[in-house]
Specification:
alpha+beta, 60s Ribosomal Protein L30, Chain: A, Phosphoribosyl-aminoimidazole Synthetase, Chain A, domain 2, 2 domains, four-stranded mixed beta sheet, 23% strand, phosphoribosylamine-glycine ligase activity, EC 6.3.3.1, purine biosynthesis, Phosphoribosylformylglycinamidine cyclo-ligase, PurM-like_N
Length: 354
């Protein structure tokens, strides 16, 4: 009869799955997760499913909205720098900022962490970041899963995914059907590259031999810090905009992710209309300039990166100044970047950056 080297028979731990380490990770993250708790959450951490009591008395005709996303290869930078407390914020932002684009309020989120080896402190750092992102979004982290895949992933490898659920009134759903000729496009500044284009970012950094610990000319801090800057969570800011202006004022929201500013804005512009966005209303971020200096063409930058704009709101012309003022007061740099008109289709960029 075959035995393991320790002659005690086959064990899960010897196969690469440490249940005790997983339980310690849960203990370390518990306080951060509990801080995200909304009053509608039923039960606590550790159940087989997350329960959330939707107060239907608050709504006339509620629609549930859902969104799923991950962080992508930005995680490779977190591993290279051994800093794992920010990618969880990225994870939440990528999900809830998609969710709010239809006008939905994020309610709760569940995460999935796959790793080669459960290192409790590292997993706790990741989930603490997820909890921080949920707090920024006003959503509860009602549960998640940590899966140890020692025979599929290296010990320091991990990947993240999450799904969030929100709610929006059926007659308040935002989208292209609300957008009109004469609307203005309000841009909201990004906090960096967010969580898109990192396969390209990392390739340029490697090919150019850029030092993540150094501060290149034009940047005000080490390159690694700039690249790990977490994605801005716009959800509560967009909901505040809707609360102030209503759907007569705010017609559409677009989260600027892969595909760039023009590509994602086009998704909320109806056939027969065109959003014209003026580059001259903002400056191209220094980090984008750096990558362009090392070989990324401008056209590719504008497709792969957000180029300084992480979210746009298409609002009625008379609401543009109010929208900018409200967002600015909430700490989100914002400006009128363009207009919607006839004579084209989708969205395009014109002019030169400041």
């Amino acid at each position: 009869m075959s035995r393991t080297p320790e002659e005690g028979g086959f064990t899960y731990a010897a196969s690469g799955v440490d249940i005790d380490a997983g339980e310690r990770a849960v203990t370390l993250m518990r306080t951060a997760v509990e801080r995200t708790r909304r009053p509608e959450v039923v039960g606590g951490l550790g159940g087989f499913a997350g329960l959330f009591a939707l107060d239907t008395a608050r709504y006339r005709r509620p629609l549930l909205a859902s969104s799923t996303d991950g962080v992508g290869t930005k995680i490779a930078l977190a591993r290279a720098l051994d800093r794992h407390d920010t990618v969880g914020i990225d994870l939440v932002a990528m999900v809830v900022d998609d969710l709010v684009a239809c006008g939905a309020e994020p309610l709760f989120l569940q995460d999935y962490v796959a790793c080669g080896k459960v290192v409790p402190e590292r997993i706790a750092a990741v989930v603490t970041g997820i909890a921080a992102g949920c707090e920024q979004a006003g959503a509860s982290l009602v549960g998640g899963e940590t899966a140890e895949h020692g025979d599929l992933m290296d010990a320091d490898e991990y990947d993240l995914a999450a799904t969030a659920v929100g709610v929006v009134e059926a007659d308040a759903v935002l989208g292209p059907e609300r957008v009109r000729d004469g609307d203005v496009v309000v841009a909201m500044a990004s906090s960096g590259f967010h969580s898109n284009g990192y396969s390209l970012v990392r390739r340029v950094v490697s090919a150019a031999g850029l030092d993540l610990a150094a501060t290149p000319a034009g940047l005000d801090r080490p390159l690694g810090d700039v690249l790990l800057e977490p994605t801005r969570v716009y959800a509560l800011d967009c909901l505040a905009l809707l609360a102030e202006l209503g759907v007569d004022g705010v017609h559409a929201l677009a989260h600027i992710t892969g595909g760039g500013l023009a590509g994602n804005t086009a998704r909320v512009v109806p056939a027969g209309l065109e959003a014209v966005l003026d580059r001259g209303t903002w400056a191209l971020p220094a980090a984008v300039h750096l990558l362009e200096e090392h070989g990324v063409p401008r056209a590719e930058s504008e497709r792969a990166f957000n180029c300084g704009v992480g979210m746009v709101a298409v609002v009625a012309a008379e609401a543009g100044d109010r929208a900018v003022a409200l967002l600015t007061a909430r700490g989100v740099p914002a400006w009128v970047a363009g207009t919607v008109g006839t004579g084209g289709t989708g969205a395009r960029l014109v002019g030169s950056y400041r």
